[in-house]
Task: structure prediction
Amino acid sequence: MRYLPKSPSERQEMLAAIGAQSIEELFQSIPEKFRLRAPLALPGPLSETEIIQYFQARAAENARGYTSFLGAGVYSHLRSVTADALVQRGEFLTSYTPYQAEISQGTLTAIFEFQTLMCQLTGQEVANASMYDGSTALTEAVLMAERLTGRKRVLVARSVHPEYRQVLATYARNLGLEIEEIGFTQTGQLDRAALDKAKLADAAAIVVQSPNFFGVLEELPALGEAAHGAGALLVTSIAEAVSLGAVRPPAEADIVAMEGQSLGVAPSYGGPYVGVIATREKFVRQMPGRLAGQTTDAEGRRGFVLTLATREQHIRREKATSNICTNEALYALAATIHLCLLGKEGLREQASHNLAKARFALAELEKIPGVRRPFTGPFFNEFTLEFPRSVKMINNALLREKIIGPYALGTHYPELTKHGVLCVTETTPRAEIERMAAALRRILEIPV
Amino acid sequence: MYPSDYRYTKEHEWIKVEGAAGTIGITEYAQEELGDVVFVELPKVGAQLKTGQSLGTIESVKAVSEIFSPVAGEVTETNAALADAPEKINQDPHGAAWLIKVRLADPKEAAGLMDAAAYQAYIAEKAKEHSA
Amino acid sequence: MNPKVTESEVPAGTMRKAGRHVSQTEGLIFEKSAIGKRGMELPPLDVPPVDPAKALGREFARDGVEGFPEVSEIEVVRHFTRLSTWNYAIDLGMYPLGSCTMKYNPRVNEFAARLDGLAGEHPSQPAQVAQGCLRILHDLQKCLVAITGMDAVTLQPAAGAQGELTGLLMIRAYLENQGNPRKKVLIPDSAHGTNPASVVIAGYEVQNIKSNARGQIDTDHLREFVSGDVAALMLTNPNTLGVFEERIAEIAAILHERGALLYMDGANMNALAGITRPGDFGVDVMHLNLHKTFSTPHGGGGPGAGPVTVKKMLEPYLPVPTVVQREDGTFALDHNRPKSVGRVRAYCGNFGVLLRALAYTLAYGPGIRQATEDAVLNANYIRKNLEDLFDLPYNLPSMHEVVFSDARQKARGASTMDIAKRLIDYGFHPYTTAFPLIVPGAMMIEPTESESKEECDLFIEAMRSIAAEVETNPELVKTAPHSTRVGRLDEVAAARKPVLRWQPASAKEKELAHDA
Result:
């Protein structure tokens, strides 16, 4: 077998050196009745060629050749092959967590750069070396707010990604954390009128996403004031990181929980992605996740080490800030390289392309009779439309034309069955936007 | 090395009692075991402590140690210098690196703890166990 | 700057594996930044441009990210290439890290994950156009269930720790459904730190149980401890000493008699795959670490994946959605799961990692047993060749890993950490130091099946040479490593005054540090 570097004679030599007659002897400590007599019924073994054929066959059964207008937490953006080539270097791909700093300076330096970029992007003072994704980063941010304030209730906007809220609910259930949902107004933003004094008094945090699940930007300065005035924190989730190339960073937020998938990480049917938590320096000891810190060796050379490890599970065990161990290091590296290539101007330009494309698409779609934009708040590259009939029916028809249509909000927002969220990025060609608009117009002309 | 007017606990805390006021810290032995101290977490002024209750933690790079209160009482002061200079605990654990001051609920409570001689005998035993 | 090592410090003759390596000087990418440089260009905009401030409104607009680097493509390539040369990696040599299972990361797995038609798929796209992805998940599910001898599985958890939490949540839901979720989970003192951390998040109390003189669960104590308050025992098997729990059947029986469940931490599955199945020896729920047993790359710390396999009675509680095959043969995500514990992660999991694990499993097929045999062979071979020089605290059969202690070397003042650092000079990554907690001065060694006899021999030679150095020249060991681009770094300063991001250099910063 090509992954096993031993010849049969070497195995014999090694057994002899151990003093065992057969390999079976080395498994004597497993009670006999539990030792398998026959090989497992598994598919394979496959050669490299056959493995590739299997996956090529699977690739042909998906949406290759379709144009997608889905965002809703996962975004199709430009990715550089240069970045991918670097990430595939064996020294990055096949290296371990950098606990032994002297032989991990490559990884640690890159983590330090990632932490810096995340701070610059979010306008916060410190950032960690990654969480699993946006949904768990938000959950951990909420738990962090709870620890910092000693309060057990959080006010969560309904316009936060439904799956993020589901993850939060799963974690919160057994920690005695109360979640109260706050609705939205006709701008699509959090209903501030619903944040009365009573609600805020014992809340650990106000939790919003910006741009939110409807694509709308939240008014963070006002929310920050409301939260801080009541001794609560403002937690902001960001699912579309490219928005930070054009939208001012959430400086009022005390904790930012971001999904970094937009920064050079493939959509890959749901993962792996890269979450990150960024916060104020004074909160760093309550922040979960690894941290790389700068220091020196005995001769004054700059180097980097994992630091403040006493927050983590391998030291604190049951009192740790989180149970996280393995994170998304390789994808943090991918995002770092991607952002270095894109640079300040590249990100600004990319963000402005998103703004332009989305507005072009909106203008085309608003021309179609019966299609309107219900939420009036400002948006980045996603917006919600209301249609004259169910989004699911429209999407079935669009699918026949090899178009994957808007995200149907009805599944998670029962009052919004005719509403869908459309995303247009710099990767969506104008011709495809026009084709989709034409197809939609035709579909809506057909009587039901 | 171990001041004769202090009292000591099995968890290596010391307390100096003057009337109903007490000053609490960790011992030379504890500091030695911990290694370089990087961070100290102390209770808030006004906090009510029970005997044996955790009053905070001391962190080295690789470990966290809880500090247990030798007596019951109310925290009246915490040592602000330790926030910026936790290394004081390694340098002067019995003096400048006191952790908190308390008002004892029962001024006589500390009398039941080990005196300097008893504590030194106790840690000598521990040293023997380690090398055994 | 000159390389750090001098010939006189590092006796060249004793090291067959490591040689001199010239290490590039390299600062941070921000230090190369200058206005006007670009590393990536975008295709031209094919729609009318908009003014961001007008489009968003003044109060929302931003004028570029302050401090973001501006560098060219070649600078980025050189920067990260140079950084990479400072890392150790599986592609370079063995990582003898215990319970990490640092095995070869097959490149065909990388190729498959990047295929057009797999890499670009959106998790919310309709099932009709995601059949390929769903089938990959479904096929992996079948393999993991077969390997572990269980009945059902979730692929959603993003790492082992999340898998642990998921398993505990399912245990809670199951017991709650029976009327009483109970209060405690038992954890051996040899357990990995994620175990107690996960227990707390699941809303349970941790109760530690001590290992017996054979480093295993003391079944008499277990009988005492398993009260009506105990929901489960979290067991790693083989344990973190590399020893199989010989009384596993009894352990399972004690728990089951009292209505408690047996959770197995599958971190050490590399000793069991194809040889035995946890489902057969009484495990009710377990997680797997795909970045360990199933070869997905560690990537400097992640990603991973922590699928959880369960016995039938826990199936209703699996996280939502599950991947199912309908009667007509098509695949779908089933969201209709009223008893589910909920969601632990958005979407269905770390799909790219799951895909790589399937590729690995397909490569071996039923021959997966051979990998396990080689892993156990390597560990025992190394043990045999070092047990005369290093203290073996538990003289029991080792499976895929062996745990020594530094007891003998400690007498000369050299600790497990020192020996580990000296191993670096010999061209190896250190083994796991100071874990498990039940062995003071632990040296935890797991070679995996990816190591040839040659590499094992070189490792043995290195360890034997270091043992000799401890006797004749302990200072050399205590001040190691000598051949790396930086020496031992000041972790105390890093923790006392954390510097966690780059800032534009002030004069003070320039004074304080200089590059290697």
Helices of chain B lie at 28-34, 81-84, 88-91, 116-131. The first helix of chain B runs from residue 28 to 34. The mean pLDDT of chain B is 92.
